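S.,

Sequence below, as promised.
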Amino acid sequence: MQSAEIMLSLTVVLLVTWNLGRAQESISWEVQRYDGWYNNLLHHSRGSVGARLLRLLPANYADGVYQALQEPHVPNARQLSNTVARGPSGLPSRRNVTVLAVFFGFHVLLDILGTEKPGCPAEFLNIHIPSGDLIFDPAGTGDVVLPFQRIHWATETGQSPNSPREQINEVTGWLDGSSIYGPSQSWSDVLRNFSGGKLASGPSGRLPRETDGRVPMWKALDPSTGQGGSQGIYDLGSAWGNENLFLQAESITWFRYHNHLATVLAQTHPTWSDEDLFQHTRKWVIANFSIVLYEWLPTLLGRDVPEYKGYQQHLDPSLSPEFLAASGQFLATMVPPGIYKRHPRCQFQEVPGPGGPFPAVRLCNSYWSRESTRLQQADDVDNLLLGMSSQIAEQEDNVVVEDLQDYWYGPLKYSRTDYVASWFQRGRDLGLPTYNQARERFGLEPLQSWSDLAPHLEQQVLEKVAVLYANNTAGLELLPGGMLEADSSLFSAIILDQFVRLRDGDRFWFENTKNGLFTAEEIGKIRNTTFHDILAAVTHADPTDLQPHVFVWREGDPCPQPQQLTAQHLANCTPLMVLDYFEGSGTGFGIIIVVLCCLPLVTLFVAWIVAVFRKRDFKKLQKEQGPSVRREVTSEAICAMEWHGPRTDSSPVYVQLQTDEVLKVLDGRGSVLRSISLKAHQRVEVILSSNKANRALLLKRPKEYDLVLLFSEEAERRNFIGKLRGHLEESSLRLHVSEMKEQNLMKRAVTQEQRKQMLETFFRHLFAQVLEIDRSDAGELNFESSQKAKESLVCELSRAEFAEALGLKAHSMFVDSMFSLADKDGNGYISFREFLDILVVFMKGSPEEKSKVMFRMYDIDENGFLSKEEFLRMLRSFIEISNNCLSRDQAEQVTESMFRASGFQDRDELTWEDFHYMLRDHDSELRLTHLCVKGVPEVLKQNLYSRVSFIKKKEPKGTISEEEKDPNLDTMSHFIEQEGRELRKRPGRKVNQYRLHLYTEAQRKKYKRNKVQQKIQEFKRFVENYRRHIVCVVLFSAITAGVFVERAYYYTFASPSTGITQTTFVGIIISRGSAACISFMYSYILLTMCRNLITVLRETFLNHYIPFDAAVDFHRWIAMAALIFSVLHTAGHIVNVYIFSVMPLSVLSCLFSSVFTDDGSQLPQKYYWWFFQTIPGMTGVLLLVILAVMYVFATRHFRRVSFQGFWITHHLYVLLYILVIIHGSYALIQQPRFHIYFIIPALIYSADKLLSLSRKKVEISVVKAELLPSGVTHLQFQRPQDFDYKSGQWVRIACMALGTTEYHPFTLTSAPHEDTLSLHIRAVGPWTTRLREIYSPESLALIGKLPKLYLDGPFGEGHQEWNKFKVSVLVGGGIGVTPFASILKDLVFKSSINSKLLCKKIYFIWVTRTQRQFEWLADIIHEVEETDRNNLVSVHIYITQLAEKFDLRTTMLYICERHFQKVLNKSLFTGLRSITHFGRPPFAPFFSSLQEVHPEVQKIGVFSCGPPGMTKSVEKACQQLNKKDQTYFAHHYENF
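The prediction came back faster than expected:
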C-alpha cells in the first residue's frame, strides 16, 4: 500500500515537472517546487506553504483549546519586558559575532517562517501599559493599551482539547530560497526578468525593482515619519524583506548573487534558454544557502552541527512554535541600537540626521524607512554590508536595546510598540509550553529555584521575576526563562534541533546524492563556499577588505569598528505617534448623513414643485374650459398695498370709487374683496402718516374694521386723496384729514383680526345671555380689558358681517329680509340689543312667535298681509340658500299646492293666523328651529344642541304611522303608538298627521356596561371584524421577525469566522436583519399587486381566511414597514461605514477578503469610498433616492395632485429591483440571498402582469359619450368577449388619444347583465379633465369619431360582498356612489327574475352637496324604484349643501319637502319617492334603528365609498354600536 502511494506521488511530480515546459531542455533533475509541496513524497504537504507548525509539546492554552493565558494567570507583558530585558547596551558579543550574522539570521527566518499574517477573525491580546510608563504613558493615565493581534491559524483546529489551535506558516518550511524567489510560482514569475535567467532589477541593475503592486509586499508605515506607499519598497522573495535597511541589504545580497551566477552560467553555456539559466542558477543559490548550517549556525550557537547522514523521509522537519519564538528572541538580544556604514577602505561613514551627523544609522528610525536613508544606491548596500561585517553585535544576554523594547514599529494605529512584550504575547498566542516543560523536552534539567536560573544576574532582577510569577518556578514561561539563562542552552537546543530536522528531512538538500542535483565534486565546492565569497562577488569591495569569516570579527581582521555603539552615540528615536484613521473625515461624513436624511425633504421639494406646476396647468385647463372671469378693475382704479396687521403680509389691491358713494377694494384678479359705503356717515375720517416716505393712509370705519393702504410714493397717495375729496363733495359729504406717525397710525387702526376677536366676544356673551350659560363658559369680562369688552358689547354688525355670521352671501334675499327685520333703528347696523331680541325668539320662542317673525320678515310692505308674491319671494329666498335647487316653476307649484291644501286657493293674501295655520303640521319643526351662527364657541354649541336636538330619543305619543298613510315610505316608521290616532278626531286640535320618524329606538333589552366592559366588547367586535386581517398581519409580522431573528442569530453565533460580528455587532445585526426583512417584504409586496390573481382567489374558499379586499391597504402597510426597515438598514450601514473607516487594514482584510489585502499599511479606506466607490454603496445611495421619490409621490396628497407623477415614479420599481439585485450580488458581507425570497413572487407577478398586458393591447370602442353636470363624464363602451364581472368591481382604463399610457381605476356603473360597460368619471384632476374635454362635442366634431379606450380588469374589491349579508347598508358620498349604481341595478334585476339572493334588504344612503351634482344617479335610482316590486331597496338622500334640518334657513324648505312628498308621493328636490334629508347623515342613530327593524339579523354589512371624512364617520358609528351585545355592523370602505 505504501509503495502504491509513493508511485502515485512520483507520477504527480513527473506531471508537474513536465508542465514546466519544453524550455527546460538542459534540466535533467527534478525541479524543486516553489510552494514546498511534494518535497516529501510520503507526506506531500510537509514544509509547504500553509502547513501547520509542529508542536514539540502540548499546547499551553488557558482552556486547553485556543484561549491564550492572560493576566492575572501570567504577568503583564510590558512589566515582564521591563523586568527581564531592561539593561545597559554597548556590551559586545562574547564570541565577537558580527551584526552581519545577526541580520543574516533574521533573513534566514524570513526564508523558512511566515507567521506574521494576522488571523481571521481578528483576535486581540492587547498589552495593557502600566500607569506612568515613561515611554507609552508618561502622563500616568493608566488607559494606554497597545494592540496586539493574534496570528493566522488553521480554522479546522482549536475546536476541542483533542485538537488545540495550530498556527500556519505562510511560506515554505524548507531552506529553499523562498526569501529570494518567493513562496509560489506566480510570485517568482513577477520577480523574474525572463531574460538571461535573471531576476528583474531597477535602472542600476544592482538593486531590485521597486514594487508595483503585483507582488503582495508588506508596506507598513514608517514609524518615524508616518509615510507609507510603495516608494523604497523592493520586490523581494519575502514580503517582509524591506522591514529595515539591514534586512533589506541581506535580501539584496542574494538578489545580486543570483544575477551574478546567472551571468556566469550564461557565459559558460550560451545556448541555454532563460528557463535553463534561471533554474540552474536557482539550484546553485539554494545550495549555497547551506552556509546557514555550516557557517552561520555554528557561529551563532558556538557549537558544531551534527554530520549529515542522508535524507530521512520519515523525519518530520516541520517548524515548531517553540523555534519560532526562541529564534526571534535569541537574535533580538544581539541587535545593536545602530549600524555602521563603511567604505571598502575601512572609512566609516557618518550618517546625517537632526542634531548633526552621527556615527551610525539608528535602528529605531530605520523600520520601513521611505526617507533618504533608504538604500537607493548600490553603494549604500555595499557600505552597509561592509559596516555590519566589521561591527560586533550586542552581548548574548537577556538585555534588549531600547530600539526594540521601546521603539519597535507598532501595530495598527500606534507607531511604536514593545518588541519583547509583543513576543511574550506571541508566545501566549502560540500556546508555548512552560520553561521547565521545554527544558525537559530537550533533556535539560528543570529549574528548581530562582537562584539557579541566572546566577550571573543581579539578585534584584530575579526577585522581580519571582514576584511576577508568584514565586512559582513551574509557571515561568519559555521566553523569559530562555532569555535569563546564562548560556542560552534552551534556545540553542531548540534552534539546533530545528535546523537539523530541516536538513535531514529535505529531499532536495544539496548533500543528498540520491536527488541527482549535484555531483560529489559540486557538493564539495558548495561546502567550501562561504558568505565571504558571496559578498566579494556582489560588492565592489576587494576580498581583502573583508575578514575571511564575516560572521565573526577577530583580532587582526581588517577594519575594526571605532567603538561598541550605545544609544547615546546616536540620533534620538522618533517618539510614539497615535494615528487617527478618521481625522479630517468627520465633517464630510456628517454632511453625507445630513444629505441622506434630507433626501425625503429634497424629494418633497421636487414633488411640491411638480404639484405647483400641475395645479397651475390644471387651473389653466379649467380656465380654458370654464367661463372667463369678469374683471371689475377700471382704468381709474388706484393700485396700493393693503396692510392687514403687524404679523401679516400685505397684499396688492385696487381701490375703486363708485358713483353710489361706495369704495370697492379688489384683488389682482378683479374680484371684489370689500365694499365700503361712504354715505353711512356724514364725515369720512382719513389719517395720513407723516414719516417713512409718507406712504400710509388709514380710512377709519366706525362700525367696521379700518382700511390701511400703503402707496408706493407720496404722489400716489396725494392723487387718491384728491379723487376721494372730489367724490365726497359731489355727494355733499365731508372729508376730515389728519396726520400722525406711521407707527401710531397702525396702532390706532382696527384690523380685520381685531374685529374678528371683538365679534367673538360679541357672540359669546350674546349666546350666554340667551341660553343662560355660566359666565365661566362664556368667558368673564373681567379677564378682558375693560376697553375691549366695552368695544365688543357696543359694536354693531354690518350687513356683510351679519351675512358672514349666518354663512350666507350679503346680497341674498334671506339676509336682506332678516337684516331689515332686525335693524329696528334703520341705521344700517345691528346692535347687541337688536340681535339679542331676534335671537331670543328663535332660541326660546314658541312656534307662534317664530312663525310671526317669519311672517314679518317677508311682509315687505308691512300691511299685515302676506301676498302670494311675497310668499313666493320667501320660498325663493330659501331656494337661493340651497344653491337654487328648485326652479321657479317648482316654487310656484309648491306655493299653489300649499295654499290649496290649507283651503286658501281662492285667497291672494294671508294673515298671520292663516300663515300659522298653513304650518299647523310642523309645530315641532318650528319649536326646534334656531339660527346657526358662525363663530359660536364649542362650549356654547354643546349647550345649544343639548337644548335643540334634531333626534328624538323617545317616541312621543300622538303621532300616526306614516306607513299606514303611505306604504312607500320607509318601514322604520311603523313603531308608532296607536293612541295618537284618536287625537286627530278631537275638535280644535291639529295633529302632525304626517310626521315622519326615521329613527326608532331599539326596544331590546339594554345591558348597562362600564367603560372597561365596553372596551372589551369593542375589542371583541374589532377582532371579529378584522380577524382575517389580524391573522395575516400577525403571520406576516411573525415571518418578518423570524427572518430578522434568523439573521441576527446567524451573525451572533453561527456566522463564518470573519469576525465581522465582533467588529460591528450592533451595525451588522441591524443591517443584516433589516436587509433580510427588506428582501422578504419587497419580494412579497408584489403579490399584493397581482390584481388578476386576487380577483380570482377572492371567489375561492381562501377568501374566508385571507382578506383579499385589503390588498391595497396591505400593500401600503408592507411598504411602510419596508421603509422603516430600509431606514434601519441604512442606519446600520452608517454605523458599519464609520467602524470600517476606523478599522485597520488587518481587520478589514478578514472581514472582506475579496476586497482588501493586508499589506501592512493598516490605513483603511475613507468613508466616501464605502458610499461612492463600491457597488453596494453606490446602489444603496441610488436605492435611497428611488425610495424617497417613490414614497413621497405615493402619498395621498401628491397622488391626488399629480397622478401622472405617482404613475411614473411608481414604475421605478423595476429599477428598484434591479438595483436591489446588484446591491446584494457584490457579496461584500454575505452571499446574495435576495433571490431566495424574490423568485417565486416575481414569477407570479410576471404572469399576472403578462395577463394584464395581453388585455391592455386590445382597443375598446366607445359606444356613447355624454357630458353630465358637475363635471361627470359618462362613457359607455363595448363589453369585450369573455368579460365576466360582478357588481361593485372596478377596471383600469387608458386613453391613448390623451398622449399618455396612464391607467386610471374607475368603478363600473353598469350591471353584469347589461350588454355594454359604463363608467361615470368625475373631472377632478388633469387626466379626467382632459378626458372630459376630448369627449366633448367640440372635440368630437374635430376628431370625427369617439376615441377608443384600453381596458384592464375587472378587479374585485369589498363592495361586491354586499350580497353575502341579509341586510346591507350602502353609503355613497360624491362620486363614490359609482359602485352602488351597479349594485342597485344588479340587485333589482336579480330580484325581478326571482334569482335566489341571500340579501333581503338594502338601505342606500346617498350623500351629496346638491341633488343636481349627480343627476345621472337620480335616473338610476328612479329606474330602481320603478322595477323594485319587492321593496328590496330603501333610498335616503342627504343634501349637505343645506344646513341642519331645523335651522331657520331650511325649516321652510323642509316643510315644503314634506308637503310635496305627502301630496305627490315624490321629493320636491329629486323627483324621487326616496326620502330627502338636509344636512349630514347621523349614522349612529340610523344604524341603531336598524337593530330594531331587523332584530333577527346578527350581522349587517355596511359598505361606504366616498371622501375620507365620510367613511371615518361611518366607521366611528359602527364602532360605537359594536360596543353593545346587539347586531354587529361589519364595515367595508373605499376612499377616493
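The mean pLDDT is 81.

Coffee later?
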